[in-house]
Amino acid sequence: MTVAPSDPSELKRAVHAHWTAEPCGTRQVGGQSRRDYFDTIERERYELEPFIPQFARFSESKGLRVLEIGVGAGTDHVQWLRNGAVATGVDLTDAAIALTRERAELEGLAHDLRQADAERLPFDDNTFDIVYSYGVLHHTPDTTKSIAEVFRVLKPGGSARLMLYHYPSWTSILLWGVHCVAKGKIWHGPRWATYQFLESPGTKSYTLPELDQLLAAFRDRHYEVVFLGGDLLSYRRSAKYQSAFHKAAWKLYPRGLVQKFGKAWGHGTLIEVRK
Ligand SMILES: C[S@@+](CC[C@H](N)C(=O)[O-])C[C@H]1O[C@@H](n2cnc3c(N)ncnc32)[C@H](O)[C@@H]1O
Question: Which of 25, 35, 139, 207 is 20 to 30 Å from 147 at the Cα level?
């Protein structure tokens, strides 16, 4: 069974290797041209998680200093640029920065993109009006440090909009079922399964009280739990999940019931807090 490295530097290297091999959102995406490729990534992202534009409020960012941490394939980042934000984007991997740069340049958008670590941001205190980070800070080994960095670089009164993984969730139950229960290792709980098997190694998830503690330095703290693709098995199946069993599970999964009755167990928490 995979075990995420316990040494933080080794874990950071494993996180880096994971996201270099498959930048977020690019799985099995084709396209005749690079423009088609990026358009497909964008269409699929907002079909799967249609609440993102309303949460991020890209359209209200003209002239504001925005920092996006963990740009991935750059889909949200180009929204800030298209809407006239004075945006800076960082990511741990050069692969993500190269993709986002390519994408901005295809659209003729000026950009400021650099490789940087969320745990040591290369910016002065009180620099940004908005810090945005979607699905990123639960992947870094020292999430507490990265949250302190968000606080530090935000201007007083500035807004942080973050998505962090929520616990308990259907995603974590499904991971537990497949990786632990099915292998007779029931004592490893759903959170452990998320830590070991969801995306890069060492992925954390937080209950709402834990999040509130993590973000205690901020004021006006708002949380909304939402379904992500894993809760409804609406993502493309990755290489790990190609067997006949997984194919059947994807087909038979009671999405309608989960959607109707299970929202409190969504895997995402949309967070908005103020410095
Ligand atoms: C799940 S992807 C999310 C990407 C993008 N925000 C999105 O929603 O598609 C996670 C991203 O976080 C980046 N990341 C992980 N740890 C990081 C760190 N310590 N500093 C900066 N970026 C990090 C990864 O390289 C990867 O691009």
Answer: 25
| Ligand 1: centre distance to CA 134 (Å) | 8
Does 227 fall in a domain? yes
Handedness of CA 255, 49, 44, 204 (dihedral sign): negative
**Ligand 1 atom nearest residue 93's Cα:** 25
Q: Strand, helix or coil at 91?
A: strand
Quick check: is 2 in a domain? no
Contact 99, 78 (CB under 8 A): no
**Does residue 3 lie within any of the structural domains?**
no
Where residue 198 falls among pLDDT bands split at 50, 70, 90? very high
- Is residue 210 domain-resident? yes
Average pLDDT score, the chain: 93
Query: Given pLDDT bands bounded at 50, 70 and 90, which one contains residue 146?
Result: very high
Q: For residue 69, what are the domain limits?
A: 8-274
> What is d(CA 158, CA 131) in angstroms, rounded to the nearest whole number?
8
Residue ranges lining ligand 1, Cβ < 6 Å: 15, 19, 23-25, 69-70, 72, 90-93, 96, 117-119, 134-136, 139-140, 199
Locate all alpha helices (DSSP H) within the chain, ordered by sequence.
8-21, 34-48, 52-56, 75-82, 94-106, 143-153, 170-179, 190-197, 208-214, 244-252, 255-261
Measured in angstroms, how far is the CA atom of residue 156 from the centroid of ligand 1? 25
pLDDT attached to residue 31: 67
Q: What is the CATH number of the domain that holds 50?
A: 3.40.50.150
Q: pTM for the full model? A: 0.95
State percent of the chain over pLDDT 90. Answer: 77
